[in-house]
Design goal:
about 450 residues, alpha/beta, Rossmann fold, Ribosomal Protein S5, domain 2, nine-stranded mixed β-sheet, 11 helices, 23 strands, binds adenosine-5'-triphosphate, binds magnesium ion
C-alpha cells in the first residue's frame, strides 16, 4: 500500500512545509503549523488548477480577455455585495453563525437567479425533504432547481458532470468529504482538499459555485485560512440573535469592492431585502435619552444612518472596564483619551460601554464625533436631542476633521427627518444648504460639546 504523505500547513498564511516548526517559516506566526495528511499519490501539483503550460511572459497589451460575465442573483442586496451580480466561473464562500440564515439566503437565490440553466443545491446537512419544506415556505418554485443530499465529494462531482448545472450551492463545505483523504469531514485536511477539487471543477466548467462555511467561536470561517485565499469572494452573514435584521458583507471580493453591505430582514417567508437601512438602524431609538447620538456612515456607495450608544458610569474601585461593540476598541480608547484631555471630562476612571445599534460595524473615522458626543452625553447625563446628528473625524488634538461625501451624508440625515447636524468647521464651505437642516460647524470636541450639551461641566 502506498504511504500517505504528511505536510504542515500554516493556518494563517497557508504556507506548506515538510517539517513541523514552532514558527511558520513563511509568515513568522507562532504555533500555526498544523499537520495535514495527503492521500497517497495526491501531490500538490495534481491539486493545482490546470493552466496552459506556456512559459513565455506576455505583454499585458497583447492579452485579450472578455469582460467578466455576471448574472443577477435575483436578490438585490446580494447582487450589491457581490458587485452588480455574481460572476460566472467564480467560487464564493458564505460564512455565518449557526441559524443565521445562510441556507435560506442561498435557497432563495436558487429560486430567484436570473438564469436559464440548471441550478444544483447540494446539501450535506439536511434531507431532501427538509429542503423541499423550506423551499415551500420560502415560495421557491423553479423547474430548473435540483436538490441532491450527498456528502461524498466524488458523487457530488459526478452529479455535476451528469446534470451540467451552471450554478451550484454546497451546504456546507465542512460536511463534504473526499473518501481518498484519511481524515474526518470538517477537518482541516478535508476542507482544504475538497475546496481544491471544487475550485478545479469551477474553473474548468465555468460554474458559479457558492460554498456555505461554518464559523468558529472567534467568528472566522472554520478551516484553514487558506480556504479564504482559494475562493474568489468571501461573504459573512451576520446579525444579532434578538433582532430579525441581518447584514451581509464581503471581506474579500476579486471582482468588486468590499465596502458594500447588504441588509435583510428575516421573516416567516424568508429574507426580505431592506431598501432603506437607515430607517431600520434607527427604529426603536429611545426618545429624550442621554448617551445616544446618530451619525451617517458611508457603506460602499450607500449612506446609512447609525445610532451610537454609550454608557459611562463612575467606577469607585479605580479599575475601569471598557467595552466596545461596533467600533474598533483602540479607536474608542483614543476618543476617551481625547475627551478627557481636550474637553476636561474625567471619563478615564469610568466604566465605559459603546454599542452601535443594529449590528453595524463602523470602520470610518467619520463616526468619531457622534461617538464622542454620545460618551459626553452619557457622562453629563444630558441628551444631545432626538433630531441631532453628528459627522466628523476627531484628531488627537481634539480637532474635528473633514469627511468624504459630506453632502451625500447630509442629504440622508435630512431625509430621515433630522433638523440639526454637527459638522467640521472646515467643511462648512463645501456643505450644501439643505432646507430644514441646521448645520452646526465646530472646530473641535470642546466646541461641539458646548454647542450641543451646554458648557461641558457636569451638573452638580
Ligand atoms: N418556520 C419558520 N418561520 C420563521 N422563521 C424561520 C422558520 N424556520 C426557520 N426560520 C428562520 O430561519 C433561521 C434558520 O435559517 P437557516 O437554516 O437558513 O440558517 P443557517 O445559517 O443555514 O443555519 P445552519 O448553520 O444550522 O445551517 C432561523 O434562525 C429562523 O430565524
Ligand atoms: Mg443551513
Amino acid at each position: 500500500m502506498a504511504k500517505e504523505k504528511t505536510i504542515y500547513v500554516c493556518t494563517d498564511c497557508g504556507a506548506e512545509t515538510p517539517n513541523w516548526a514552532g514558527k511558520c517559516p513563511s509568515c513568522g506566526a507562532w504555533n500555526t503549523l498544523k499537520e495535514v495528511k495527503l492521500a497517497a499519490g495526491r501531490s500538490k501539483a495534481k491539486t493545482k488548477v490546470p493552466e496552459e503550460h506556456d512559459i513565455r511572459p506576455k505583454k499585458i497589451s497583447e492579452l485579450s480577455i472578455d469582460r467578466e460575465i455576471r448574472f443577477a442573483t435575483g436578490i438585490p442586496e446580494l447582487d450589491r455585495v457581490l458587485g452588480s451580480g455574481a460572476v460566472v466561473g467564480s467560487l464564493n464562500l458564505v460564512g455565518g453563525a449557526p441559524g443565521i440564515g445562510k441556507s435560506t439566503l442561498l435557497l432563495q437565490m436558487c429560486g430567484a437567479a436570473d438564469t436559464d440553466s440548471k441550478i444544483l443545491y447540494i446539501t450535506g446537512e439536511e434531507s431532501e425533504r427538509q429542503i423541499k419544506l423550506r423551499a415551500d415556505r420560502l415560495h421557491v418554485k423553479s423547474d430548473r432547481l435540483y436538490v441532491f443530499a450527498e456528502t461524498d465529494l466524488d458523487d457530488i462531482l459526478k452529479a455535476i458532470d451528469t446534470l451540467e448545472p451552471d450554478i451550484v450551492v454546497i451546504d456546507s463545505i465542512q460536511t463534504i468529504s473526499d473518501a481518498s483523504v484519511p481524515s474526518t469531514p470538517g477537518s482541516m485536511t478535508q476542507v482544504r482538499e475538497c475546496t481544491m477539487r471544487i475550485l478545479r471543477i469551477t474553473k474548468e466548467k465555468g460554474l458559479t459555485v457558492f460554498l456555505i462555511g461554518h464559523i468558529t467561536k472567534d467568528g472566522t470561517i472554520a478551516g484553514p485560512k487558506i480556504l479564504e485565499h482559494m475562493v474568489d469572494c468571501v461573504l459573512y452573514f451576520e446579525g444579532e440573535r434578538d433582532t430579525s435584521f441581518r447584514i451581509l458583507r464581503a471581506v474579500k471580493n476579486r471582482f468588486g469592492s468590499t465596502n458594500e453591505i447588504g441588509v435583510f430582514e428575516m421573516d416567516t417567508d424568508g429574507l426580505i431585502c431592506v431598501d432603506n437601512p437607515s430607517e431600520v438602524m434607527l427604529s426603536g431609538r429611545p426618545e429624550h435619552a442621554s448617551g445616544t447620538c446618530v451619525t451617517c456612515a458611508l457603506e460602499g456607495t450607500r449612506p446609512i444612518l447609525a445610532e451610537i450608544q454609550a454608557l459611562v458610569t463612575a467606577n469607585p474601585r479605580n479599575n475601569a472596564s471598557r467595552r466596545s461593540n461596533g467600533i474598533d476598541y483602540n479607536r474608542a480608547a483614543m476618543l476617551l483619551a481625547v475627551l478627557e484631555k481636550r474637553s476636561a471630562l474625567p471619563v478615564g476612571n469610568c466604566d465605559t460601554y459603546i454599542n452601535v445599534v443594529g449590528g453595524l460595524y463602523l470602520e470610518e473615522p467619520a463616526a468619531d464625533m457622534a461617538t464622542v458626543l454620545s460618551l459626553a452625553s452619557s457622562y453629563l447625563d444630558r441628551p444631545v436631542g432626538d433630531k441631532l446628528a453628528a459627522i466628523g473625524e476627531v484628531g488627537l488634538s481634539g480637532e474635528l476633521r473633514q469627511v468624504s461625501a459630506l453632502n451625500q451624508r447630509l442629504s440622508e440625515i435630512a431625509r430621515l427627518g433630522f433638523t440639526r447636524c454637527v459638522i467640521p468647521a472646515s467643511g462648512k464651505e463645501r456643505a450644501e444648504n439643505i432646507p430644514g437642516l441646521e448645520l452646526i460647524p465646530v472646530r473641535n470636541v470642546s466646541q461641539a460639546i458646548a454647542a450641543v450639551l451646554g458648557k461641558g461641566q457636569k451638573d452638580s
